[in-house]
Structures are given as structure tokens and as C-alpha cells.
Amino acid sequence: MVVVRRAAARVGVPRSILHYEFDGAIARFLEALGIDVVLSPPTNREIFLAGKHVVIDELCFPIKIFVGHVAYLATLNVDRIVVPVVVGHVNDRVFPCHPRCRLADIVRALGLCDETRLLSPAFRFDAGGLCAEGFHELARSLDFSEKESHRALPTPQTRDSRPVVPSAPHAGPSVGIVGRPYVVKDAWANNHLAQRLESLGCRVLTEDGVQPIGYSPEGTGLHFDLAARTLVLAGLWDRDPEIAGIVFLLPFNCGPDGDIARHLQRTVDTPMLTLVLDELQSSAGLVTRLEAFVDLLEREPVATRGRSR
Amino acid sequence: MKRRVWIGIDVGSITSKVVAIDERERMLASTYERTRGRVVESVKDSLRKAVGALVGHAVAGCGTTGSARKLVGALVDADVVKNEITAHARACLSLHPDARTILEIGGEDSKIIILRDGVPVDFAMNTVCAAGTGAFLDQLATRLGVPVERLGDLAAASTRDVAIAGRCTVFAESDIIFKQQTGHRIEDIVAGACRSLVRNYLNDVGKGKAIEPPVLFLGGVAANRGIEAAFEEALGVPVTVPEHYNVMGAFGAALVAKETVVSATKMRSLDEIRSSDFRAETFTCPHCPNACEIVRFVESGSPVATLGGRCERWTAEATRASVPVHGTESTPT
Amino acid sequence: MNHFTFSWGSNYIAVRGLLRALGHELATPPRIGPAIAERGTELAHPFLCFSGKLVLGQLAAQLERGDRRLAFMSSLGPEACRCADTSDYLRSLFADCDGFTAHRIGGGGFGDALSNLRSHFGFRVRRRDCFRAYAVFFGKVDLLHKVDKRCTALRCLSSTPERVRELEREALDLVDRSAGPFALWRTSRWFDREAAGLPLRPEPPSLRIGVVGGEHILSELDSIMAVVKGVAERGILLDWRSGFRLLARTSEERLAPLKEKCRPYLHSAPSTSEIFSCAHATDFIDEGYDGILHVYAFGCMPQTALKPVLQRVAQDASVPLLSLSIGDRFAEEGLENRLEAFIDLLEARKSKGATK
Hints:
Helix content of chain A: 25-40%
Distance between the termini of chain C: 58 Å
CATH class of the domain at 2-135 in chain C: Alpha Beta
Largest interface: A-C, 41 and 38 residues
Shape of chain A: globular
Number of helices of chain C: 14
Number of domains of chain A: 2
Distance between the termini of chain A: 64 Å
Structural class of chain A: alpha/beta
Strand order of the largest sheet of chain A: 2-1-3-5
CATH architecture of the largest domain in chain A: 3-Layer(aba) Sandwich
Strand content of chain C: 5-15%
Number of strands of chain A: 11
Largest sheet of chain A: 4 strands, parallel
Radius of gyration of chain C: 20 Å
CATH class of the largest domain in chain A: Alpha Beta
CATH topology of the largest domain in chain A: Rossmann fold
Helix content of chain C: 40-55%
Oligomer: heterotrimer
Number of strands of chain C: 8
Radius of gyration of chain A: 20 Å
Strand content of chain A: 5-15%
Shape of chain C: globular
Strand order of the largest sheet of chain C: 6-5-7-8
């Protein structure tokens, strides 16, 4: 086994998937250990294409983006690249989708870099974030002691738990964006949705302004983790009179999100726009839909909500 | 005193439409032309035909819509640039205030708009797949060697149900060839293809939408009685094709302009527009790995507006600040 | 009480066996074909796996003819994917259907399954009866699998493939009519005798192809897999080693050696479906099979995630792999073309004496 001189270790972290799901916890952990963390840049077209060209087409849009980030890091002068995977919720009834479990194996199979450069800690998670074992596994593989690992464990980011009601009156409609964190927070993936909505006069909300979201929506029988979370958040916003509209981001070929799309359309009363995200959708089409949606929100006074549509 | 008119221009990927309405929102003139890839010339031509013929009228406002709405808006200095979903909804509601569903099938895209109590509450657009659009019929007409305008009559003469398979125009074409080879009547094939288009439309754009009567059917494809019949069969409710079914977008843009413009119009005179050397040029920005495609509108050698780009780099070029693109001008496109 | 179910291949026979052992009846699901696929596609979101669309198509067809009490098999755990506990999901999809009820039969183990039966069917089910019903169920699952595998192999090895197909039909019918464990045992013996008595071709198979992939597609008999299995009659041996039990999680003891086999390629929490596919592929390679066929439903998440891994496994071993995704188009021609081309490739390699 090659012993890495810890103080000198540079570790690449892909800015994708788990990085967004868990508020960059892995990067923060590595920094706390004293590692020089190299985070890949925010997604851009070049990074995406690097992923798209190597991975099979049937896999969903976000996986292609992730692989692109790893491919990019492989070209840099880093000693190791972290490809973390989630293996399940602590209670064993909520599951990550199979591609997210398989990330490390896929990256290895694609041969993007020498296998010895890859670190693939496996994490369990709950509503509070990633569980400690995965961090310890990562620290061990970098030759840190358990004590050092404990000291470096990231605290859950304090989420702003103010209610969503805006403090200052806002002229335009408030729009909430629901979806997997790694498309909601990845501006390239969502084609700068938040910025576009803001330029149309909207106040944009994401889950960051909401209290920790659980994984178990009642009575849906669905157990895919992020799809379940999306339902919970959409339900919260649907009941909130301040939210005029909801935008649901649906990555291309995402099975779990496809499952809930119909359910959302049937059960959410608030006007909702479903946007399928992939690299082929035109910006012009997106702009048209957003403009029409904002027009619709502006014409439909919030007081009329609750009528059957 | 000159009578006031409002102009609506709808330019999409295949056709451009111009409408002029009067104070009482009656249509005074309309044109419907194939763009044939030359947007600027087509618009100049259409304006000349529609507006140039109006005598004793003064333009009080102008609105543009359609996928080229920003380009045309910059060309004519429109008062309002409005997306085509809102424009179509506005037009339909003015003529049929009780409409609850709008089905629209254009040359290369299709839309559905759900209205309740005179207000749009939901919509969907298809811009990825051609199976539920006019392109499917164009292909069918070419394959069968008939003009696309005749397809409706052929479908009406069908006597037998023929199912055309495939969720994709390419696969459907294979099946159509096969049906021809195995001796099916052309009328039955066309009717089957119409049902196939309707099925693809409902499965894609219409999926999960609460389609309730009264149902309006718009767009160039609405001229095809075979499609109208296929919709009625599939939905089980009557479907109405309004009188100006193929220029509703332009009509809607004109209505929005009429509602919005309170003082003098910004629209340039027809002479100015006709003599303008307005053009669009496209280039790839080399400044970052995103490699965005930038569209720059140029007139008399200077840039007047830009579209495209994920950052603000190119928007500073715009000199015609009056181009009202509803707040998106300085936004990544 | 009459129930209906959705089914992949013939496993409805096992469900029927379980219900009959408890005094209930089950309607035969409609044959899978383009009409079912079409109907399911209309109901489903495009991103739902093709197997799921076939399920929805079957459900819709049966609801239309008035059936209302759905009993379906599933187990909990990652391998079951979205079908784990979809009663609520299905109910919401068919909310307009008056009187529609959906009962999941199955669970994380026998205890769960027992309490499911009791709660869903709302009658006092004796533990002994349940035990017997599940014994019948598992007996039929295993026997159906044996019949499927053996008959597919015999279509290659026997000189009378039409008789093999006949035998398969007769066997399925007999399995369906076998009410209890003893009858099942007799049926199994009868099948073994009949199969052993078939005349064999003198020449060995020209090629041996190992089949791995999604359980739901592998168990399809009539339509999709009929094309694949038709290949056997050209003297090509097709082998697959599933055994994925629908009711309970496959035990850790059974999975552990398989996981060990996959270790170089699969690390983090592979689902049962992925473990089976990868381990069996490794077995086929070790046993010198000429090629691997990977068959799965389009949109099947575990199998799609596995595909690049399998490609690497095959590449490292220099064994040709064909990955066939069965999808919306339900097109046999494309399938046949690709299979034929793959077989041509394997034959050419073999005749050139290609080695690993």
C-alpha cells in the first residue's frame, strides 16, 4: 500500500451529486483534516460533454454530469479523487437509486483514471445528513487515525429555519423550485433557472430556506429517497399561501422522479411547471415556458387557489 | 382622424403571420406565409401585404410572439414581446371566453393550454419530438406524394381502421410504407396516420392534463379535418376549430399590445422597416468552456441586441434599449 | 374470491397456486404483446422501466374487463425497486376505478408475508395454511424455473424442438393444476422423465451463450424472450441461472459467495439483481462460454447502472458481450438483427480459434 504523506495530499472532490445533496460535507471534512481539497469547477458544457462521451446514454442526465466532473479531476494533478456513494438510509426502508449506489463501480469500469487514485467511501444517511462511518472509512483510506477523523466530522450546516413568508413585500410571485438537490443547485444543469425566474420578477425559493425535509411522505408507498423528499417539500409549499407557483425539475431518464411526476400533477393545487432537464432542450423553449408560467401566476390571484383545475 | 390599428406578428420556425386589428378587436387583415428560413424578408413582406394595404389607419401598437419574437421585436421596435403560449390563450379567450382547453399543433412544435374561468392555469409545450407535430404530416404527404392540404379530405374518405405503429415519425414512416405495400387504401392510411399523430400528441404534450370541453384546436394543422376528427374520437368531446385558427398567435400578440400600450407606439414605420438592413449573425464565444452560441442583431453596422450566452458579457452591446423583451434582455439565454 | 394479478412470464401460475391453497381464485393475466405495451406506455411516465409499463398495461386491460381485486407479488429491498410496495401508487393511478383494491403478497420474510396475507385478505388465515400456501408457491416458482431453463436448453440439444415446445406447454399446464406439494413433486418427476426421454442431436452445441440480466424480462416467455430463445433451435445453447425469488429477500448466506465473485467490479451495496447478473457472468466466463447476452428492460435502473460494469467484466476477459435493452418499441426485428450479428461474430471468433 502506498502511504500518502498526509500533509501533502491533494484530493479532488467532484462538485456534483453528493456534494450538493449534503451541503459539501465531504469537502469540509477533508479540509478539516488538513487536506488540500480541489473541488471541480461548477458544471459547464465541457465538463458535461466529457461525461456524456464516456458513459452509456441510457443513464440519467445527472450521472453524465457527475462522470464529467470525475473525468475533469482525472486530468488534474491530484493524488486522489473521491467518488463517494450512498448505500442507504439508516432505517433501510428508504433507498437511493441504483445509479447513485453504483457511481464508484461505474467510474472504475470506465477506466477514467488509475484505480489506485480512486477513493470510494460508502455512506449511509438520514435526515440529519451523512453518517459518521463513511467519513471514518474515508479518513482511514487517507491514513488518518480515528481520533483525527472524529475531530474533523462536519457539523450539519445550520439551515435557516425561518418560515418562508418574506420579510419585505415583494412585487412579483414567489416561486419554489423542487427537485433533486444536484439539479436544483447546479446552475448549468437547470439552465440558470433561478436567475431567469428572478429576472422575470419572481422571488425564488429552494429547499435551503426550509427546515430539514424528511424522507417519508405519507401514504405514497414510494421509497426512493430524493423523490420522497421532493414530495414532502412540494406538499409543504402547496399548503403555503405565500407560494404562488412551483417548478419541478425532472432530470431526463430519472425513473423515481418520473414516478412522482404524475402524482404531483394530480395532488398539487398550486400552479406547477414541470421542466425536463437534459442537454438537448433549447434555451428558447425554456424561456418561453418560464414567461408563460409567470404570466399565468400573475393573472391567477392566489385567492382563487383551491378551485378544481 | 386616422383609425387606430394594432399589429400582431407571430414568427415561428416554419411560418410567419401578421394580423391587424381595430379598436373593437376585429381582424382587419391577416397574412400567413412560409418563412423559408428568411425571417427578416418574410416579416417585411408580410407587413407590407397586411398593413400596407390598410388605408387611413395609424398603427397604435405592435406585439410580437413566436420563437423569433425577440428578433422581430428588435427589427420593428415592438411595444410588447410576448411568449406564444400567453398570446394564444389571450386570442382564444377573446373569441371563446368559455374555452377550457386549447390544443395547438404547429409545424415543429405543439402545445396544450388549460384554461379555467377565463384564465390559463396549466400548459405544456413539446419542442423535442416531432411525432405530435405538423412535421409528421409533412413527411406523410411527401411519402404518399400528395399535397399536405389534401390530407384532410383523404382522411374523411376513409372507410376502414388502419393502425399505424410507432411512437416516432421515422418508425411510423416504415409502417406506412409497409401498409402501402400490402394494399391498404391511401385514405385509410392517412386516417390511421392522423390518429397516430393525435395519440402521440396526447401521450406527450397532453399527458396528465385535464382536457375538458369546450376544446379549441389551433395551428396550421387544424386545417386538417382528419386530425380534427381524430381528436374528437380520442377525446369523446366536440372540438372546435376557430375561424382564424392559423393566426391566433399573431391575433393574441395584437391584443396584448392593445392592452399594454398607453401612449405612442414605439413601432417603426413600414418604410423604415423595409429599408432596414437588419440582420442576425451568430458566433461562438471563445471566452470560457461553455462555448455559448451568441446571436447578435446588427443594423447599419452596429449591434442593436444580443441573445444567448450564460453570462452578461455580450449584453452590454445592445444599443437599442427600447427593445422590450420583458426583462430577459440582460439575462443568460 | 376472484383476484387478478400482473405477471412476468408464467409466474402468475405460482401466485394462483398460493391463492388456491387459501381457497381463492386468480384470473389468467392477458398475454403480453404490443397492445399491452401500448396501453402501459400511455398510462406511465416515459421514464418508467419497460417492465413497469407492461405491468400497468396488464392492470389496465384487466380493470377494463371488470376485475377489481389485485394481488401482486413483491418483496422489500433494493432489488425490488419500485415494485416493492406500490399498492398506494397503483391505487392513485387507478383512483377512478371503483372498488379497486391492491394487496401485496410478500414481505421481508415469512413473518411479514404472513401478516400481509392476514391484513390484506381480512380473514382469519391459519398459520399452517399460510405455510402450506407458501410451500406451494415456492415449489411452483422453482419448478417453473426448472421447466423454463431445461426446455430452453433442450430446444438446442434435442433433435425434436417442436416436441420440446409442446412439453413446455404441457408442463406449465400441469404445474398450474398441481394443487399441493405432493402433486407438484409428481409433476416434477413426470417432467424429468419426459425431458430425459427426448432424443438428442448427435453434435454438441455450436456455441454456448450465457444470459444474464433483469429478472422481469428474463421470465417473459411469449414475446420478447421468445425471440431470444428461438436462437436455441439453431444449435446454440442458452443458459441462465436466475432463481430470484419474488417473495423474500435472498438470504445473505446465499448471496455472500456471489458477492465475493463480483468483488473486483461491484463494491457498494449491489442489489440482488446486479449481484446475480455479475456473478453469473463471471461464472459463464470461467466456464468458457463463447459469449454473454445481457438482457434488460429499457429504463431498468439496476441493470442500466450495471451495464458499464458488465462491459468492463467482459472486456477484461476478452469475451464478447451483447447488451440488449427491451423497450418501448417492442420491435422484434431490431432484436433479431442484433442477435444474429452477435452470433455471427461469435462463430467467426470460434472458428478463428480466439483465446482469452
